[in-house]
Amino acid sequence: MSRWFGKKEIELLAPVGTFEIFKEVIEAPCDAVYLGGPAFNMRLMRKGYNFTLEEITEAVQIAHSLGKKVYVTVNNLLSEAEAQEAREYLIFLEQAGVDALIIQDFAVLSLVRGMGLALPLHASVMMNVHNLEMVKALQELGVTRVVTSREMDLQTARYIQRSSGMELEYFMHGDMCVAHGANCHYSSYVFGMSSSRGKCMKPCRWDYRVKKDGSIYPAEYPLAVKDMYMYEHIPELIEAGICSFKIEGRMRDASFVLMLVNTYADAIDRYIADPIGFDRTKDAKYLYENRKRDFSTAYAFGKPGLANINRRYEGTGKFYSTGRVFSTPTPEREVSDQRISEIRTCLSTVKDTADRPRQERAAARLAVRVNNMMQARMALEEDVDDLYLSGDVFLPDLPFTQKDIESLCASKGNSRIYLGLPRMMTELHFEQYMQLLGRERLQLDGLLVTNLGAVHAFKCLGYPLIGDTSLNIYNQFAADFYGEQGLERVSVSAEMTAGHLAELLTHSRMPLEMIVHGSPTVMYMEHDLYENTELLEPVGEEDNRYVDNEILVLMTDKGENPVYRDQHGRNHLLLGKELCLLSILPELREAGVYCFRIEGAPYKVHDLQAVIRAYRQALELTAGAEAAESSVLRPVFAGYTLGSLQFN
Questions:
Q1: Scanning 62, 90, 465, 591, which has its CA 20 to 30 A from the CA of 566?
Q2: Helix (H) or strand (E) holding 108
Q3: Average of pLDDT values for 105-125?
């Protein structure tokens, strides 16, 4: 089955959560379905959903007999221990004849290529593809389709498709995340349940209060976004070059999915048959009356602002439309002596390998990411090994100028200075950074790269490249992949648990960096929470407890999380507590961590200086010496946490 508008092929892609749902949906007027198997996908939290191996084989046979396609989601991050199971699963999927895999982790791409499998690969929305350079890089790697970033507007999609010829898949209906794909680590830090491994506990659906400048605002559920709704904009989707119209809903029942498939299929067919006389609103009221949440076109036509936030009860702390609470506000765990001891024991299991001999561990480095010139100058005076100039500068500070960079490089001493890039890079960003970096060689020691597109665009300029945490390195295969792309070292995923970190340190051939202190961004989003304080009237007064009043905080009964706005207008939700791994630094060093990073952006200069000195002293300890205690520092936020290392 296929649909054509002129020379443009159009696919209506339906979700199926179980084999019983599949048997009904595949008979409906969709062109393809996507589903998850027993492992390695982003819907592992609901019992009874996903397909067995036998059901996948039968589903492919049924779909192909009807001239339709089956795509299988293999779209979560893999741990080292899962690699062999993944190999066997990939071989099975090729033998079953599935039409493509939807993937997030470059480990899957590496395994498919390494085993010589002929499985077509589609880049998942969790790969967060958001610029032309990323698409070009994926094309060179053999990826045949991209599920675009949720934040991609149709004008950008149109430009990318026409410039690259890549097949683009676009979410047109269903549940959306407020954060950029694979850039939400809140669930990992609080519950040990990784949103990049199919186990998100939906903290975006909690009831928060918004507080800023001493005032409280009636924001209710400020992160709970509406459902995507593009029923009335099928012409614009086709004009933008979207080839696959994707419905979200692998955890929805058959009747709901069938309603969406039948309604959207009818609209697409009506438009193909008579584009001039097309009635956009024919079944709009019907869809609205049967909605789960309220509707939005999200970022399809630009930033939606507060209009994207849901007020309907299903989105207010309740994940299912039945009203069942999915999770509740929970504080970061306290640092305990028992857990520190358990982590030390876990790290002691790291084995030496022929690829990573012990002598490589001798020269551990201390890196600091800074937000302004005062922090940068202080860090150079403290003789940090690596200084990262942030590409996402928290306001009210201003971005580093070329003059700033030249001034710092002229006085760097023994330190190395790296220019950080924005996490999300638009076509405008590429033009700006190419103008800065491509005219003449700056005295930088390298770039801190945040996405595959940046690697693809800038590696030809000759600057050494270091991979930031947004690359989400969770296994040796992904680390090796970026090594093949020319990176000198990579930062491990912020979601890394203690056991998985030990596995990675045992097997990785790439030098590894790790964030050990600070308040990392746990939710990175285009959505601007500050609009709540600009468009709503306050309902109360209360000062912030830990950060300046000019910084917005999200409050629950468990604490306060600061939210910083950067120079691009994007929001960074931080932990309420500071990550502090000072107590296990010798063990991390002995296990093979090469570079230890402090996230310095939120700190005042004297507080950051104290942190740098404490970690420098700890790193100067000889192996086996007594660990430095976190009590030598005074927490600036609500206290200390071990982050995802709290969990095995």
A1: 465
A2: helix 106-114
A3: 97
